[in-house]
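Usage

Read records sequentially. Each one opens with the input sequence:
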Amino acid sequence: MNEASQWLFGVESTAGLTIQDLMPGIDVTAAEWEGPMRSDDGNTSVVRVTTSLTVVGQEFERTHLVQDVTEDRATEAELRRLAIHDDLTGQLNRRGFLERLEEALAAGETGSILFIDLDGFKAVNDDHGHRAGDFVLQRVAEVVPERLAGEGRFGRIGGDEFAILWHHADNGAAGTLSEAVRDCITGLQLAIDGKPVTLDASIGGVAFPEHGSSATELMERADAAMYRAKREGGGRFVRWDEDVG
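and closes with the structure output:
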């Protein structure tokens, strides 16, 4: 080892150490490997190792070039997080929600999707401005996930539309959950400029795999059921069926 690698691994001497001691799990035969490096302080540093072979006489000499990529991976993870989360609420955005749904379908899971639209939200924006509207969206994004208690995934799909992916729940359970969600939203005691704000929700629901085999199809049908609830006066839950479609 050269001095730079000794500094990287935090050792003064490599006596008694193998390459596996320095980089647990390394595949020394791989042209490129990435994984954790030795740490005495509990840090989870990541290194990338590029390996080359050189013929020396009758033997092969293996050379490992080691690069600390911890910051690169942390940056990539943060960019990934930002790509699938909504800036305003911190919840999953449409892309992130669809990815979770696609994962559930690929795993052969059953479950339900609730598509939620806020009744009364347009009046908040019109009467009080977008900053007030943002405040309302943030409050909704706080209280509804609390009701899920980790049993589902919640996302802001766009505007004042939200969605819930509830694993292993049938249509009957989805109806019960929709009432609980409405209770959360109607129970928000909001006041803007000293005036009380009243909200409710129109909710459409689908079950999978009964109502669709793809994430796009399921979302479209949940959306259609939600708009049916909206047309019927709002403040209600509608399950998708052929008549809705």
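Summary fields computed downstream for this record:
- The first helix runs from residue 3 to 9.
- The chain has two domains: 3-73, 86-239.
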